[in-house]
Structures are given as C-alpha cells and as structure tokens.
Amino acid sequence: MVTQTLSSYITASSYEKIGEKAIYEAKRSLLNWLGVAIGGSQHESVKKVLAVSQVIGSSPQASVLGRTEKVDMLFAALLNGLSSHVDDFDDTLLETVLHPSAPVYPAVLSFAEYQKKSGKDVLEAFIVGTEAAARVALSVYPSHYWKGWHITGSVGGIGAAAAISTMMRLNVEETLFAIGIAATDPTGLREMFGTMTKPYHPGKAAMNGMLAALMAAQGFTSSTKSLEAERGFVKALSNEESFEMITKKWGETYEIEKNSYKPFASGVVTHPAIDGIISIQKKYQLLPQQVEWIEITGHPLVEELTGKKIITTGLEGKFSVYHCVAAAFFQLKAGIHEFTDDCVNDSCIKGLREKVRLVINETYREDQAQVKVKLYDGREYIHTVDHAIGSQQNPMTDQQLQDKFIDVTGSIINTEKKRRLIDLIAHLDEVDDLAEFFALCCPVFTENHS
Amino acid sequence: MVTQTLSSYITASSYEKIGEKAIYEAKRSLLNWLGVAIGGSQHESVKKVLAVSQVIGSSPQASVLGRTEKVDMLFAALLNGLSSHVDDFDDTLLETVLHPSAPVYPAVLSFAEYQKKSGKDVLEAFIVGTEAAARVALSVYPSHYWKGWHITGSVGGIGAAAAISTMMRLNVEETLFAIGIAATDPTGLREMFGTMTKPYHPGKAAMNGMLAALMAAQGFTSSTKSLEAERGFVKALSNEESFEMITKKWGETYEIEKNSYKPFASGVVTHPAIDGIISIQKKYQLLPQQVEWIEITGHPLVEELTGKKIITTGLEGKFSVYHCVAAAFFQLKAGIHEFTDDCVNDSCIKGLREKVRLVINETYREDQAQVKVKLYDGREYIHTVDHAIGSQQNPMTDQQLQDKFIDVTGSIINTEKKRRLIDLIAHLDEVDDLAEFFALCCPVFTENHS
C-alpha cells in the first residue's frame, strides 16, 4: 500500500495546501539551481550531449538554460540536469546527501516551458516531486549509498516522475504507474564520481522521470507496489525496510524546508576553513607577503577528504583545503573561478598555498574550524567558525544566494538579466506566463562567452 | 582492468574473425526476433509509447518494425525492444535467462537504418553486443536475479552500448566510456513482471545503451573500471565477483551459439507437455469428443508455475498447463493466438481443459514430460518427450523458425513479404543496403490489421 498511498498523497496536493515556508524555500532552491545550471551550461559535457541531441534530430521544444539552443523536453531535462550538477555547486538535503533540485527542476521547467505552465505550477510540482524523492531517499539511506548508488540519480527519477505527474494532474492510478516506471529505471553508481557521468545522473533521472510520467499519462501500466514489493525498488537497491518514511506525516512539513546551499564550490568539509579565512580577510585585508603561515584546525575528514597538497588541476583544487584557503584569501570567495586550472596554477596562489598548514582536532564538528594567520611582524589573527555558512544552523541569506547567482552565472547573461531573474523568481507565484523567464536565461551569443 | 580488457576485445572484433556458427545463429536470432517484434507491434503498450514519441516531436529516422511510423533512433530502439518482448516469445540464453536479442537488435537495427549500415555490420554488432551482455550476465548471475533485477533490462544496456560502439568503430577509450555510461544506467526490476513495464525493460536498455555509445562517441567520459570497481556495476547489483567471466576465452566461441528459441508462447516449463500433445495429434488427429482424459506427467515446476485451473484471460492461459495442452490439441501449436482472451474463453477449449490432469514426478527433468490420452473407447496413446523442442538438446530447426515467423507476424505483413524477409535474413551478410529489409517490415496500413 506504500506506493498507492504515496500516489494518493501526490494527487491530493495543491498549491494552496502548501505552506509559505516551503514555497519560500522552493524559490531559494530555484535561484540557486538556476544559477549553477546557467553557470555549467558552457561545460564541454553539455556540448557533447547537445551534439547527441542534434544527431537524433531533437525538436525545439524547451530551452537549454544559459544557451541559445532548444531541444525536446526530454533532452532539455537531461541537459539542464547535467549542467546544474557539473560544478558540484547545487543544493543538498544533508540528511541523505540528496541534491533535490538537479533531477526535479529540469524536468519541471522543460515541461512547463513547452506546455505553458504558470509559476505556481512550477513551484507546486517541484515541492511535491522533491517531497517524493526525499522520502524515498530516507527509506533507502544509508545502505543504498554504501551499496554504491548515487542517490541523486537513483532516487531522482521518482521525484521527477512525481513532479510531472503533479503538473499533468494525473489520477492516482496513473501516478502510481509513473512512479513504478521511474522506480524500475534508476540511474547512478558512485563509481562515476570524478567523471562527466556523475552529473549525467541527475540529468538522466530528470529525463527518465519525465518519460515515465508521459508514458503513464498514455495509460502505460506498471506495478502497483513498485517501492515496497519483495522485488521492488527499496529491497533491490538497499538493505533498509523503512517504508514508513515514504508516507509518514505527509503534508505536515515539507522536506524542501531543510534544503541547504553551498556558498563555496567544493566539498562541505572545506567550508568552515574557507568561511574562516574570508572572515579574517574581510576584516583585515592582509597582503599575502605579510603572511608567515596560516593554520587551519578542523575535523579529521578535512584531511581525509581534502588533504591534497600537490595539485595541478581545478578539479584537484576542490580536494585541497590548502588551495581552498589560499584562493579564498585572495578572492574573498571560492566559486567556480577559484577552481579553474588557471587559478590553481597561478604563482601567487601557489606561493600562499605553501604557507597553509592543517591541524586535526577530533573534538571538532564537521561544520566547525579555527583559522589562525601569523604575520612576519608577529601579529596573529584568529577566527573561529562554529557553524560554517551554508550549514543548517547558519543558512545562506537571500542576499548571499543572490550574490552567488550573480557570481556563478558569470558573463553568460548580463547584469540586467540577472537582476530581472532574481526578481522574477522572488515573485514566481505571480507569474502566469514563463516566456520571459526562459528568454532571460538565453544569452545573445552561445559560443563567445565561455 | 576487466572493463578495459573487455573494451579492447570489443574494438578488436571484426566480421571476418567471427566463425560461421555464430553468424548462422545470429541470423536465426534475427528471424525469431524480427517475427516477435512485428507480431508485438500492434500491442497497446507500443501505441502508448509511440504517442509519447509524438508528444516530444521525435524525428523520422528509423522504423517502428511492423508499423508505418518512423521515429528517432533512440525511440525506435525503445519501441522495437518493447514490441519484441511484449509477448514473452523471444529468444533466451538459458544459463542466465538473458533474452539477448530484445535489447541488442533494436539498437543495432535502428542505428543501421539511419546510418545506412550493411548486413555484415548488423550481424557483427549484434554478435559482439550479445557477447558483452551475456558475459556481464554470467558475472552477476544468479544473485543479481534474486536481488530483484530483470537481467535482460539491467544488463542489456551494456550489450546495446557494446554493439553500437562496434558499429561506430569507437576506439578502446570511447568504448570503455560507452560501457561505463550504460553500466550506470540499468533498467529493470522483476516486480514489474505482468505489467507493460516488463517489456519496457529491454526497450529502455536498447535506448540507454545507444545513448551511451552516442555520448561516448562525442568524448563524454565515464569511469574506466565501471564493471569491477568497488562501487561499480557488478558489486552494486549482485553478490558475485565473477569478473573473469567477462573476458575469459573471449573470441574462442560465442555465447550467441547457445541461443534458444521458444516454439510456444508460454513459459518453458509448459513446453514438454505442449510438445507431447502436438506429437500425438499430428499422428492420430483425435477429436475432442473421443477423449476421456489427458494426463500430463512432468517436473514439479509445471504445477508450481503453471498450475492455474480456473482462468479467464489470455495472460492467465500462459500460466495454465491445462489450457496450454487443450489449446495445442486443437491448433497443433501454442502461439500468440492460443493465448488470447478469445481462445481461453472458447467453450470447446474450456471443455477439453477440464479433461486435462497433471501428475508430478520429481525424477523428471524440466524439459521432459509424458502425455497420455485416454479415449472413451478404451484406447490409450502415450508420447514421451525426453527433450522438448526448443531445449538445448533439441533446438528448433530452421524450418520451424520460419514457420514461427510466418505465424507470429500474422496479417501484419503479407505472405510475399514474409517469404522475402526469410530469404533476406538467410543472406544478410550479402546485403549492402538494408532499405529493402526495413520496407518489407512496413505494413500498408497501420491500424487496419490489429
């Protein structure tokens, strides 16, 4: 009955029933997600899949956000999911490490564009789809992850299917079948981390979930107990049997309310150190040649996951807390540009990197760090971060999310468009025609700004 | 190194290196597969997915076999994979219960049609793709199956990716990435058996595998050890570590040489009984009103899997050995038409069904049965089947495969086309231009013959 109950909850959803808090967080999720999707849109992995869409003659139904090309709804879902995850800079539900927007928003938006849905439709479908995905994630976590599944891809398709079912106003049986078709089609092994196939996972989940809902809308049948059956999704892909997580207290609060956003374009364990050095620099504006050393004290995982000292590529820089701190010292941020090959190999940043050292303290929490800067003249500056920015205790403010949006979208769209998009998203529930939204995501030239 | 070695073997393949036995069996596989694909092409599940392809504006690149519509290569792979498995009448590698043609041939043929490949290209790509899929299947079987995976879908995508990589002459690294992208994207839970989603599995595998190869051809990257890694395909989807099955003695013989074909459109455990009653009827042409009872002696699984006595639908008929025997008594076959609702509910067949009884003998093998017919006048006819037709010891002859092709394609294409297709497939290695092949699979009208 679990899948049946879930489907009945999904179909009983309505925009009016959803509280303001969830709507507010869905808008923040969209701003963050759209920024990183546009920011990732010039990545070579996106161009490669776009070339495939051209080989199969995809029809121009929906936008590749941040680009001038249009492709069919399914490929738009795939491409926008890919671009939004390629920089590992999207949002996270920390309890299961599910990135909710990357598989759900691309499906919702490409469908909304072609089918001319409203802003309220988009917000409702995203919240309901995320709710379904997050709850299935809770039902399979953690063994699912340890078995080797990348939960954002494997569970994301169910979220996309639930979202499109919501948007299409499918009935309970159709929604049940949409979830079943998506459940039989999970994408994503953790082995793919570090390759283009990692961001392919949420993209493919968005595509699979949308296809599932489109098929169910035509009357295609599936199991009626795809999640809870003996040979169903939960048992085949995890050792858990936490089925009650899927439906318990549905509608009382929404999982999207717990969403968190990355202020920095690297793994969360580096964030307290980056937060600390930025705090010091904002206050004292030190020059690198004044610095004798910088000492970071943090949780053991900082060294285990990000202890790389010798690095030559931007991707490696994400796994070097030494680089993260050195780059943030200069730039007062750690965005996409701080993890380019150029930045990692800059001689000034390399020089400062050599002055950074790491002390592990097992009593520290993961979101905690102390940063100490010692100058040649003997002065010392210390900043202690109790809860890094972006953690659940210290969420990013609206202003910080807007600044991130402006930063990550770079020169792909101009400042005027950025401002207008920020405003549009803040008032998305009042927008009946999303044509302007999609037009604003489109650059004038595709190839001249990468 | 397993995936790397597999990829190097795939790229080193050539038509000339493949022995005659494998080529011969690939042609028999194609004849059988094409028949059931055309036979299934009017099924409502096919029409529903076709409707989705129209919603997304799919471009006319490749044929939906048995229909007049053309769709893009990816959707053609999906649709032809679906139609060829919807009647559960396709081929089987009995060792792992992998149905090799259903995920591999649709990918190969839709690519071949649009890219104007030759008959030799098709045969080589199918044999290599099947080899890859069958060996990965051996490496995960049996725990993969018991965990809940439908192996034809979950492993089939790797076969389709290997086949398209072969056809595109991808290099070792590209092939490695194609396999990685397909491996991260398995489709198919056994929970879906009995719904339209079951035949969706090989169709989606064909689509996923083709997409993977098209992406890899563009330079999209993936893991280089997707099969054997700690968080890779084999460990995430099974409890086996039989990696050596994937590459051992590659090229010495081909798995396709072990392919088997169903003479009857029901589960294999019913086949010895059907074979037996047909043998008696071919010899004695008994009338139903002469029969007092028919007694089937067989393996315990016959009762466990097909012991349904009261049935009202064609699908249930497949799980009733009583119906199988009664229908075969009248028709001298048990094809698609014998498992329609009409046939199951025919009063004559129902009457005879009540005269059929079952005796279980634990010493019998699964491909063995004894059929005894007792007439009212006291005469008894006994036929013992040691190895049912279609089993590995008693394979279907070319003539029987041709008769099956003619039967399952029904009135969708006319007799002249059937004869010409049988001839074309027998000489496929001599065909440079497959345009005629695809034209022959196309009926004059789409909707008037279902």
Automatic annotation (TrEMBL), chains A, B:
One of its GO terms (molecular function) is lyase activity. InterPro entries: MmgE/PrpD_sf, MmgE/PrpD_sf_1, MmgE/PrpD_sf_2, MmgE_PrpD, MmgE_PrpD_C, MmgE_PrpD_N. Residues 264-429 form the MmgE/PrpD C-terminal domain. It holds the Pfam family MmgE_PrpD_C. SUPFAM superfamilies: 2-methylcitrate dehydratase PrpD. Residues 5-244 form the MmgE/PrpD N-terminal domain. Belongs to the PrpD family. This is 2-methylcitrate dehydratase.
